[in-house]
Design goal:
Elements (H helix, E strand, L loop, with lengths): L1 H23 L6 E13 L4 H21 L5 E6 L10 E7 L2 H6 L1 H11 L3 H11 L3 E13 L5
Antiparallel strand pairs: 1-3, 1-4, 2-3
Helix pairs in contact: 2-4
């Protein structure tokens, strides 16, 4: 009986060791990178200059403050031509270290917005004002894929 118990325990240890060694040998040629929040925007006809002025002032000031506070890593704006009247023509991208950092800093980012822009009423009025010059078609959460093995 004691011999059987020793044999079972030994087999269990061997199987456990083999599974750890096997999982440690997985070496994929890619890994997850940072997390991006992507705003999909359609600037209304004739309002491109007005929206770019907003981006270069208020939006940029908020992004820079979040970057300085360590909430975000970077940000960028990508502009393109739209192919139809319902198509997007601008992307607003904000980069976070990872999903956990994004979620953990939501309150900190909200407090920073309250300090920079104003209370909820002021922020809602700003959103209404911007709705005259652009339409938000949607927001996406995306993860960068690094095409190299994880170090």
């Amino acid at each position: 009986m004691k011999r059987n118990l020793t044999l079972v325990c030994s087999l269990f240890v061997i199987m456990l060791t083999m599974s750890i060694v096997t999982s440690a040998q997985v070496n994929r040629p890619y890994h997850d990178g940072s997390v991006w929040i992507v705003g999909v925007i359609q600037v209304k006809p004739g309002m491109s200059t007005a929206y770019k002025n907003y981006l270069a002032t208020d939006w940029k000031r908020n992004q820079e403050a979040m970057k300085k506070a360590g909430i975000i890593l970077s940000y960028m704006v990508i502009q393109t031509e739209s192919h139809s009247g319902t198509d997007w023509n601008m992307l607003l991208l904000t980069e976070y270290k990872d999903l956990a950092t994004y979620e953990a800093n939501q309150d900190k980012a909200d407090n920073l917005g309250q300090t920079l822009v104003g209370n909820d009423d002021v922020q809602m009025q700003g959103y209404r004002d911007r709705s005259l010059i652009r339409e938000v078609l949607g927001n996406r959460l995306a993860r960068e894929l690094k095409l190299e093995p994880k170090k």
